[in-house]
Amino acid sequence: MILGVSKNNLPPLGLVLPHFILSSVSLLIVAILIFISSDSFNSHYFQPQLLSITHIATIGFITTIIFGALYQILPVILGVNIYSNKIAYLTLVLLILGLSFISYAFWNFKTGLTIQIGSIVTLASFILFGINYYLSIKDNKQWPIEADFISISVVWLITTGLIGVLLVFNFSYAFIPKSHLDILKIHAHTGFIGWIFLMVAGVGSKIIPMFLVSHHLDKKYLNISYSLINSGLILIAASFYFELSLYVVSIISILIIIGILFFILYIKEAYSKRAKKQIDTGMKLTIIAFAFLLASLGIAMIIPFDLAFVKNMMMVRINYGVMIILGFFGTLIMGQSMKIIPFIIWMHKYQKIIGKKGTPLPKDLISDHISNTVMNLFIIGVIILCSSIIIQNKFLIEIGALFIMIASILNNINIFKAINHKPLPAS
Amino acid sequence: MKKTETTLEIKEILKNVIDPEIGINIVDLGFIYEIKGGPGETIEIDMTLTTPGCPMSEIIPASVEEVLAEAFPGSQILVKLVWEPAWNPELISSEGKRQMAMND
Question: Per DSSP, what are the bridge partners of residue A214?
Fold first, then answer.
């Protein structure tokens, strides 16, 4: 069986589904905001509209879906259910509330009470998620390497939220004796790599081989990846804090890059040992996401160097952010949600007649034609967006955003198609 | 009815149970390890899934039980989920491999 769900440990559809829907709607909002604020991509990354878009993307689009997916997947990875559905609901409400305050405050550059409330509410949501996760796993005897990835990522999530609160209060009270931008870099790295990447690696290293039906994989790649990324992350945070030169940061970041490469090696092995040779759209997107990840790593490597042929190195940094958020995480999430959402809905609609003839399969709940179109538009959109940021072309940025917007609308249509699927009677 | 015929008949019935993600029936996927008994007596099935520790393990065994109970109303059906030996893709039948577009 692929996704660890059963009658007894199935989290309520009303808990998991809103996470997926909110995530998908957030992506649409991100695309619309990129479209209407294309000018902001020609400036510094510490720019109100960009900060707002980044938070909607990382919290609304990515974190929301991770929370929902983890409630569903925890039984598969650790053999336990989420401790409390009520805490999970409260976590989501606080997350959306906090994000609304933060994104509104950033967009309008209000550095006072609004963003302070938003950051505290968001941190409260992260802490509740952490407590719920800890209570779910604390007595667990089964402890694979995937659990290490997930557990440490939750620690990084709370660290990211805490640094975010400090940064927000630093706007008004300037109590941090360090450069605000350096602390922002720590916040970004603990968020992108510590929280999102390590969580994606923990969950992905379990479910990607499951979807590909791959066996006999060498988990030493994951052990090395885990150690390198975490040690690199601690060192890089320290180097930002102590304001070491960008070259030192680059040398340390090689640790993280090698760690990520080991994770990619694990996925490559899963791909080459797959029993399921036919790759559906969801898995195609997953594989393409790793190509974007490699491209992001390439961009990360050139950031410290002042390249003569690049008009503005700040654009390379923004490009790196867009490539990793939309290119890697976005493509991966879109692909995996095409697998997971139909499965969850299918489980709720068909679990009682699974052995009967004529029962549709999860993939039948969504349109493969729409999925394919979503894939093409999204990939083209991300490539146009990233390229146009480098060449600073406002019109092309809008075109890229438009592609992502249409992809996002179609993806939402596909999700609602699955939700509205009427169960067919068993023959 | 001879034992082999009974086993074949049970396997044929179990082919109605499909793994929803892979889209192939559990017999061709090699999930069925052992079949004991037959019509009018207790039917025991030892089966596995692609990965151990999967909490969904209730759904497919329950479906196995359901389809067999329907086909053999006079029999008691006992389905046991086993993780040893661990399932691996080599257990997929030629037909299963063909359906998965797998190269033999």
Answer: A274
Per-residue tokens: B76 = 């008691």
**Confidence class for position B103, pLDDT limits 50, 70, 90:** very low
Most A CBs within 10 A among B29, B47, B56, hence the mutation to make, goes to B56
User: Residue type at A375?
Assistant: M
- The stretches of A174-219 forming alpha helices (DSSP H) are 180-189, 198-212
Q: How far does B2 lie from chain A, in Å, by closest CA?
A: 26
- The whole-model pTM stands at 0.89
Cα–Cα distance measured from residue A232 to residue A259, given in angstroms and rounded to the nearest whole number: 9
Asked if A275 and B100 come within 8 Å (Cβ–Cβ), the reply is yes
Does A278 contact B17 at a Cβ distance shorter than 8 Å?
Answer: no
User: Of the ranges A86-95, A282-291, B21-30, which one carries the lowest mean pLDDT score?
Assistant: B21-30
Rg (CA), chain B: 13
pLDDT tens digits, residue range A147-159?
999 999 999 999 9
| Least CB–CB distance from B22: residue in A142, A213, A347 | A213
- Nearest-by-Cβ selection for B55 from A79, A346, A354: A79
Tokens, residue A121 = 């509410």
pLDDT > 90: percent of chain A: 60
Question: ipTM above 0.85?
Answer: no
Distance CA A421, CA A414 (A): 11
- Give CA–CA dist A265/A255, Å, rounded: 15
CB A202 within 8 A of CB A147: yes
In sequence order, which residues have a C-beta less than 8 Å from that of residue A72 and are 6 or more positions away? A3, A5, A11, A16, A340, A344
Provide the 10 A C-beta neighbour count for residue B2: 8
Average pLDDT over residues B29-47: 91
Q: Tell me the nearest-neighbour CA distance from B81 into chain A, angstroms.
A: 12
How far apart (Å, rounded) are the C-alpha atoms in residues A422 and A83? 31
pLDDT in tens, A58-68: 999 999 999 99
In the sheet where B77-81 sits, what is the strand order?
B32-36, B43-47, B77-81
